[in-house]
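Notes from hallway chat w/ T.B., transcribed later so I don't forget. T.B. wanted the structure written out for a chain they're using in a teaching module, and asked if we could keep both sequence and structure tokens in one place. Agreed to drop them here.
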Amino acid sequence: MATAVPPLAGCSAPEPQESAGPLPIAVEVNQSRDQYGKQAIQIMFTNMSGGPLTVAAAQLASPLFQGNILWEPTGGSLELPPGQPKSLPARLPAPVCGRNAATQLSTAQQPVTQQPVATVRYSEAGRPGLREVAPIAVDPFGVLERNNRELCLAAEAAAVADIVLDPRLEVAPDSRTAVVRLVITPKKAAGAGADVGSVTIASIDGTTLIAEPADEPWPRNVRIVQGAPRSELPLRIRPARCDPHAIAEDKVGTLLPLHVSVGDREGQLNIAAGTALRGQIHDFVTAACAPA
């Protein structure tokens, strides 16, 4: 009968462990291409002990996020052979936003270091019971900082307006171009005398699948204000590439990047196509790339 694993302690952060030699488990943060825009990352565990280990639970504490980033096994524990890294997905909690988010630390809930600190609960072959280690997690590509910026930007933009892609694709009669529509629904202003929020779409980028036609460029410097009527931006699209792997290996081809500014933030806001529109875009690119 399996032994129940007690939960990791709430949102409390462990003291990061540093030593002259390697800790039994090293932790690294990364993000796969198909996780972009999904508020998810990869936590990579590497067994440094020289013997087999079994990971029962793990979490990351970072001052950039509210609460901990949790990995909880759904099909049992994780077997970790020596020297073999394994990456597992984890959902990101809500970001900590504000001008000085990285320094807004709660001494009761956040680590002293700005680096993410992991807590890993594991067992060793031939030794009963669970052990716990708290290494500093390596984030070589700045995944947590980038996601914090993007999520905070998205939250501030969402307070001004809902920006989505219409689920319907309008394909031209010759099947060589189509139109996607960016639907903008501003929120109501907070009230009389309150500041009216605004978002400016400075530009819109193409993706690995779709691009703007040279003779019909996409709009730039579109200002959206709270309280304004609902509007739509029609974007005529063409295939960005026609090689055989364009659709088969697509990860972010239907994630439309908007370059926006809201308040004192500037950055990229990714608008994802829903399942129906994603399939229509794939069908359109396939048809448009077919020989005449």
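Follow-up for T.B.: Residues 159-289 form a domain with the Immunoglobulin-like fold (CATH 2.60.40). Might be a good example for the class.
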